[in-house]
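thread: overnight batch results

M.L. [08:02]
morning all. the overnight job finished for the chain we discussed friday. pasting input first so we're all looking at the same thing
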Amino acid sequence: MKRLLAAAALIGAMSASAVAIELPAEITKRGSIKVALVPNYPPMEFRDPATNALSGFDIDLGEAIGKKLGVKIEWQETSFAEFMPSIATGRADAILSGFTDYASRHEIASFVDYLRSGPQFFVQQSRKAEFKDLASLCGKKVGASRRTMFPAQIAAWSEKNCGSSPIQFVGTDGSADARTQLRQGRIDAAVQGNETLPYIMDLEPGTYAPVGEPIAQQFTGIALPVKEKALQQAILEAVDALIADGTYKTLLAKWKLNDNGLEKATINAGQ
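M.L. [08:03]
and the structure it wrote out:
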């Protein structure tokens, strides 16, 4: 009898766990969540050079979320320009691709924030002695992806701190292009998210050196259609469950993102 009661209690607990997170009917019927990404932002998402398989923190996190929700993740490669249209038109259910939560994007998407980051200046290691602090960047050529908010953040920092010798901003076609121009000496410094810099420095040891601390704080989030409140809640609860059971912490350590972790997921915390 005790065994039967214990078994019944276990089954009840498992059932309660299974229905605790409720997905939209369409996704439950399909058995999958369609997730858009651009795999060119290591260590967040990229293709493993050895296997060409999708890899990175976001990939691991997405798969873990899928397991928590009992559905598969259908990864859909697209372009950055198609991110917002893809969820606005229903081609994708979500964007999980190192995508920053900005208030300007909230009209189309709601974000479940799962990571903190910030724009980080860095220079060539060979010129590190020239850039002992952030003030030494004033008047210099600084490159960053023109598709991000980095240009505006760099301009705001420069206006506040550089006076009559502002930073000369150079727009690039992404963070990889910024690093190429830096190595070629076409710019003096570059900016990219501090969540990616340690990984890049490990890939190219002795090449880059960070300067100062990040100049702003921002949140990386899973972008979801504004009207899909049930999906937003399901993803939020799944991320919090991964934080609670230690999976999230393990993934942060795996991808050297310990300094970027959150204690709890939030919705639309970006400014």
